[in-house]
Specification:
Two copies of one chain form a homodimer. By secondary structure, the first copy, chain A, is an alpha/beta fold. Chain A has two domains: 1-112, Orthogonal Bundle (Arc Repressor Mutant, subunit A); 114-175, Dna Ligase, domain 1, CATH 3.30.1490.190. Chain A is built from six helices and six strands, in the order βααααββββαβα. Chain A has helices at residues 24-37, 44-54, 62-71, 78-90, 133-145, 161-174, and strands spanning 14-15, 94-97, 105-108, 115-120, 126-130, 148-159. In chain A, the strands form two sheets. A four-stranded mixed β-sheet of chain A has the order 1-5-4-6. In chain A, a hairpin with a 7-residue loop joins β2 (94-97) and β3. The relative contact order of chain A is 0.16. β6 (148-159) of chain A pairs antiparallel with β6 (148-159) of chain B, so a sheet runs across the interface. The structure holds a DNA duplex (25 and 25 nucleotides).
DNA sequence: CTTGCTGCAAAAGTTTTGCACACGT
DNA sequence: ACGTGTGCAAAACTTTTGCAGCAAG
């Protein structure tokens, strides 16, 4: 049951491993340059989406951005959010994270060391942890098969202490 | 661009790490027992789906099964395939594999050591490799956060030798 | 016979796309 | 002005579900 589908109302409680929020501002310039290079425009909507994305401490999804944008003074449409996410991926400002197969999850791609994700199957809490040590494994496996390594993802599924506590309580109730 | 979407017509060429196909037959009995325990029935359709699943050498998806079932003498509906996949997951005969976020991917859960997946971003080829060494990391991370470990997934993205060759050819064509 | 199962078609959820109009450069 | 971008609504795709008839135990 590799399933984190029933997520608690749009939010992922996340313990991030990010280190420097000082890198956030230059990102705007970086995105701008990226767009110019591609003959694309830096629109108000893209600025707003970038801003929302940069404020994320951990894993997020399109849905979440959409909800935030809906309330904000700047309403941005679903279509624009999806289109902009693609550009942010290409610009390597965000990267995809594999949490479950029903929706796409993203995370900032900069200012953080390689991380894996520890997912609680019950509460959907996601904890990040560093995974530098996996680079060696990636290199080795790629070399063995003649591949050029690009990136890797490591996800652990388990039960959080909170989930176990809840379980206990439920058993008490039922029994 | 963590995207393996444009997959070559329903097939994943896979180099598996499976070891004993001799375990396959008992699976039928195991599934039967599992169903009985749950008050469920072992129907012709379920038998056929189990059979198709057991013949898989590597990663597969619902879509693929559906296509196979369409041609076979036993036509099985989409709905039944999805419903049966859920039971097979619960019975721990198959497990979910995270390859990309657009579709669910599965793999037999037995008769194989823990494996990771090396995915070629261009050709979508998937190579399995053993990942026993990651168990220690899983245990350690879980202990650090008070989690009970359940399972883990490790995916490497890269470019296969074949993809690089194709690229070369294309550059030659264009230039 | 009783209960669960199947197929169909419709629904649901996420992501993409066509189009007319609006906006950066 | 030109070429892109945006919003909207519809389409595409994967997965789920309701229902009426069907089959396993």
């Amino acid at each position: 049951m590799t399933d984190a589908r029933e997520r608690p109302a749009g939010t992922y409680p996340v313990t991030a491993v990010s280190e420097d929020d000082g890198l956030i501002q230059p990102m705007c310039a970086i995105f701008r340059r990226f767009l110019k290079r591609q003959g694309l425009k830096f629109t108000t909507e893209r600025a707003f989406i970038l801003d929302a994305v940069l404020s994320k401490q951990g894993v997020f999804e399109a849905d979440e951005l959409l909800a935030e944008m809906k309330d904000a003074e700047h309403r941005v449409s679903k279509a624009t959010i999806y289109r902009t996410l693609k550009h942010l991926l290409e610009a390597k400002i965000i990267k995809e994270v594999l949490i479950d197969s029903s929706r796409a999850h993203y995370q900032l791609a900069f200012g953080r060391k390689a991380t894996g994700h520890l997912v609680c199957m019950e509460t959907n809490q996601i904890i990040e942890f560093p995974t530098e040590e996996l680079n060696a494994l990636m290199e080795r496996v790629c070399k063995e098969h003649g591949y050029d390594p690009l990136s890797h993802r490591f996800v652990i599924y388990g039960s959080s202490p909170a989930a176990k506590a809840t379980e206990q309580a439920e058993v008490g109730d039922e029994g």
